[in-house]
Amino acid sequence: MRVGILGSGLMGGKLGTLFARAGHEVVFSYARSRKKLEGLARDAGGNARAGTPGEAAREADAVLLAVHWSRMDDVLKQAGDLPGKVIVTCSLPLNAANTELVIAHTLSGAEELAKTLPKARVVSAFHTVPSEVLFGVYEARRKASRPSLVYCGEDKKAKAVASELIRGVGFDPVDAGPLQIARYTEPFALLVAQLAYEGTGGPELAYRFERFRSRGSENRIVVKV
Ligand SMILES: NC(=O)c1ccc[n+]([C@@H]2O[C@H](COP(=O)([O-])OP(=O)(O)OC[C@H]3O[C@@H](n4cnc5c(N)ncnc54)[C@H](OP(=O)(O)O)[C@@H]3O)[C@@H](O)[C@H]2O)c1
User: Fold this and answer.
1) Ligand 1 in contact with 94 (CB < 6 A)?
2) Nearest Cα residue to atom 37 of ligand 1
3) Which stretches within 6-94 are classed as H helix?
4) Which end of the chain has fewer CB atoms surrounding its CB within 10 Å, N or C?
5) What is the residue range of 185's domain?
6) What is the mean pLDDT of each run of 10 residues along the chain (225 residues)?
7) This prediction's pTM
8) What's the number of domains the chain is made of?
9) Closest ligand 1 atom, CA of 189?
């Protein structure tokens, strides 16, 4: 599929590279230098090129939104009309210092984005893992046991697109339900970031949900990090 990257930093740069390696056609956009976008496209191989946000969005089957929350209005303005587009957002509604969610509990960043883009089909995904783990997960994609990756959204077809992207870069997609569930997944992303960046094991961290059933007891979900 054709994937437009809006925000080609740690997340967008790496995910765009992996989407291209997984066989998708990628347009990198929205960095402070065109040279950076061209370098990313070159390193990602034949399936990628650099473009403007408008070019990245125009022909895309899916758009990855990977900017700091404070850049959201600007990037959306540059991207232009997005009616009907599948928007996969990994952007978290964080303050300038990246220490706190500025939207939480009764609303999520993903829902706020969907309100801003009422005609787009928003899926929240990729925000629950640090960028540092992405290449490692991709390299391990042929192993029997893959890390989980939660995603949520309203539109069934948009979620199928997101699920294909998630699977293509080596995760096991976990459909967490409607977009409202981003109220849970966004704070969960901060927990993963806390373990990745403040823990002792390094930031190359992913998680895996497993079910452990025993006779006569209820099902339990266990999170392995
Ligand atoms: N990093 C993670 O591990 C991680 C994990 C989960 C979720 N997230 C979320 O994902 C989103 C993206 O995070 P990130 O770490 O990838 O951010 P980032 O590395 O700062 O990337 C943001 C991109 O936006 C571009 N940008 C910023 N200001 C700009 C401007 N004025 N004009 C044009 N381009 C501009 C940056 O350009 P330059 O390339 O020139 O800097 C960069 O390409 C955030 O909402 C974050 O909370 C991040």
Assistant:
1) yes
2) 31
3) 10-21, 34-44, 53-58, 72-79
4) C
5) 2-224
6) 98 98 98 98 95 97 98 98 96 97 98 98 98 98 97 98 98 98 98 97 97 78 71
7) 0.96
8) 1
9) 6
